[in-house]
Amino acid sequence: MPSLLAQTLIAQGLLPQDKAEEALRHQAAQGGALDTALLERRMLAEPQVLHALGEASGLRPVNLADFEPNADVASFIPPKIADRLCVVPLSLDGTTLHVACGYPVPRKELEEVGFLLGKPLELWVATEVRVREWISVIYRLPLTPRYGTVLAMLDPERMGAAAIPPPAPPPAVQPPPPPAPDAEESTLTLEMVERLARDVAAEPVPIERTAEPPAPVAPPPQRVQAPPARPAPPSPAPASAPAREPLRLNMAEPARPQAQPQARPPPQAAPPRPAPQAAPPRAAPPAPVAAAPVRPPPPPESRPAENESARAPGDEVPEWTLAQARAALKEATRDRDRLIDTALRFGRRSFDYVAAFAVMRGAAVGWDSRGDGLRGDALTQVSIPLDASSVFRTVAVTRGSYAGPMPPDSLTRHYLELFGRQPPRTLFLYPVEVRGRLVAVLYGDCGQKPISQRRLSDYILFCQDLPAAFQELLLFRKQRQGPQRGGMNFDVDIDVEFDEPAAPAPSAPAPSLAAGLGWSPFATRSAGALGRAASLAPLVMSQEERPPPDFGPLIKRLTGPDANQRASAMAELARSPEASARVLATHFPGPSAWSRLPVVELPEADELGPIAGALSRLGRPAAQALAPLLDSPDADTRYFALLTAGGLPYVELVDGILRGLFDPEPDLSSAARVAAAALKHLPRMDAARRELRQELGHRDPLRRSLAARALGTLHDREAIESLIPLTGGSDPLCAQAAADALREVTRVSHGLDTRAWMAWWADNRTRRRADWLVAALRHPELEVRLSSIEELSRGLNDTLGYYADAPEPEREAAVRRWEAVAADPVRSRRLALL
């Protein structure tokens, strides 16, 4: 984490405390890595920063300025993933892929990359600016002006060397363009189609790779006098030869045209770079993960009626072109069933069997399917935990599609057998992400037959439109069906949009166990207590409430791959909440498919993993066990503890959450903000708001900005008079944070204009916040109107016919209805807490 790097620099005497704090503030304001901020501010020389990166990360540092970018290995990591993780491939040494990473090192994500490639990764640490330069050279991506400026400062004699020419124009033959893709996706799409089209003449395309003994792994040499001569690229294979491309993480992101390396006099050392191979040797498959016994699906003869009845006209394979499928998808964005039907029917052009899984509470639950395979209610009983090590977890964590042979792990095979798929020759997975959260996963295979590359490329292009379609569906349903459904908050839980099919229960636990599955602090709100865990322990425990002598087998079942065993383990843990909470805290956070990123909404505890999900069901004992983890020295533990704490409304957690609001890590402070917002109705949070308002006068600009963002998330009206002067301050970080907080509280957009804010406050200080939200329903920005109606409708449990995307005359009529409600003393009482 950046703070650890700062502590390392201070401990080594390379940087005084005040300079380290200045660098952290600059990094928080400008983004990027802390080492870039240090170089940008000329606080340290590059060798000193590189040495500190090695000390803080525990990896060997590599100075990429001394090496030549190796475009031959670019195909192993797609450009979008390389850019997101700030990693770049260096060389292939036998079966080991050497990778340079920025700091902090994304270890978990790189484990997933190595898993998909079937290759061990050797990690090196480098400065962010050098990694970004290599990414721009290898993938022919434009380098941002900021990094170009820093490189010019580091290498004055190479002014302009960092400027990378724009990518070559796409070929003349292009598929029908998507409705409105961004520039990057458009480039990827055209290049992918061009690459796949070359293989169409040779269909069917074999996928098998010849097995070769792994070469011995040797570390990169430290110094060589000259780089090895680059061999000529291998001649293309004849059309009848099997395709032997390196396995790609995301076929929607093929490798960019290889760039010619920059000439650098004189290179002193280079990571090992063997000659390009027609078929890179695969690493030995990892040891299979212990899986629960496979529950075979019903034999085909036991369900002919189900499959035949399911083969309605909707199961016919349509002869759509890509443009026609996109048009059908666009027309289906307001009907959930029609949307998924369109996606599955078009997928049948490419696959013999295609299925959709809804992502709910950390698991992929069977939704619907087409083709020769498990259908109907039987598919809805399939639940695949996304934190168990399989290709489904890899897709969930990396958010990249997968098309290739089935990975060698046993869990992937186990999950495919759950929905009736024998190990296919090639399988396809595509994650659908909406607002940073995974909502669905598409699956397809052709059994033992090869996949048509042309049709696969069309389907990948079609899938790129699914996130926007699901986003429009979500917006429509949130407005038309109200803010709550089944007692769940639409604004907090996006997965409620896809709560059909029901949660799986192929072999339901006994009634005594099932009673604990839904037990949580929110289950009963009696006047006396919040549940059994919140009450005093009985003097004499019954046999059921007595904790087991050994929690090991129970924890193993809880974190195992079988959903039913997990459910029964959670119920057993709920019998003895005090002892279970202590044991779960020692295993926290446990396996998880949740990526550590900044958050704007609180996820369900089950999405964070089975350990967090089990803790959320134990009430106050869980809060007491979780409280020390909020101050853990491990950043990952603090992050997951903060998100878990948001689902436990107990005062024991408030102080730890308040400390998390000032964590210099952006993802941790964002987790603390959403947790604080979830607990803002606790009495302790009233005193916390006063403390946060005092922090607005702190001398540290970073602390002031974090306090402003927290107050904005808490919708603190009393902070407005202190926030307005900060918008005109000299520190841009504080000014922007104050403007964002004011916008969040008032739903008014005046940006950094302090005078406009003062004038608005003079006119509106006597009005209620509910009146501000009603006025914001006329705001010209859709996002402001949508956030305002979401808050108002939560208070009244009705939209009064207001839809943020409706025509202006309809919106105006609905606004007048809201104004009448706000003026009614009786009905407006329900808006008093807004």
Automatic annotation (TrEMBL):
Chain intervals for the UniProt region annotation (Disordered): 162-185, 208-242, 254-319
Domain spans labelled Type II secretion system protein GspE N-terminal: 58-141
InterPro entries documented for this protein: ARM-like (IPR011989), ARM-type_fold (IPR016024), T2SS_E_N_sf (IPR037257), T2SS_GspE_N (IPR007831)
Biased composition (Pro residues): 164-181, 213-239, 263-302
Name of the protein in question: FrgA
Biological source species: Melittangium boletus DSM 14713
